[in-house]
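Morning. Coffee machine broken again, so started the prediction first thing and wrote up yesterday's gels while waiting. Chain of 232 residues, entered below exactly as on the submission form.
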Amino acid sequence: MSDERVDMLLAAYKTGSTIEPFEVKDLAEARLLSSQLQERLVNLEGFGGYKISFTNYKSLKAFGLDEPEFALLSGSMVVSDQRVQLKFPYTYAEAEIVVKARECDVSNYEECVEEMRLGLEIPATRFNAPLEILNAYQIIADALTAYKLILGPKLSRIPKKVALKVNDRKEGENVVFYVYGDVYSMLKWLSTRVGRFSGYVSTGAIVGPVMIKKHDVLEVETEEASLTVTVV
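Came back before lunch.
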């Protein structure tokens, strides 16, 4: 039986509305609510892949977590559009590397990658509060605030650095490195949590989250490729 809090989050997701933050008592409860919301989103919109969050030491320490967390992405969340609709008041941009995986597990987490792409994740919380006000349990319960994952151009290799610009202003530029190492290390970690998997995987924020607004122009850049998205 679904928790009424999941009903509230799903209704907000469907309508573009927000709800007041509710209490989530611990990590176990957060994961239970998250799992229920993910299941209902995938039943509604199909399966698209996975997103991994809290992937660097800074975010783990800030939110008091021992390891990253993941959530399923629905089919409607994974897009190739260069325009993204601002549906929720607290919406953000994150520069990411996205891989398309086929039957990945702990034994083949490099060979299973069919594509590697530049990506722009657009998280958007259904709570009526910015991310800095929410705690880790609330973010996890809101299925890690997944909204849209925009697929950019294919990459021939893992970039040395990734930069994120908003309206030509550089918000940050970082090397591609996560709490367990490179992109492949995050796929290995994911396989320890879900077993064998396929689909698109957003491997974690390299730059961001940066709050965005309507009419912003977002750019993700590497030495090999770039992606530009307009917020409408």
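Residues 27-45 form the longest helix (19 residues). Going to sketch it on the whiteboard this afternoon.
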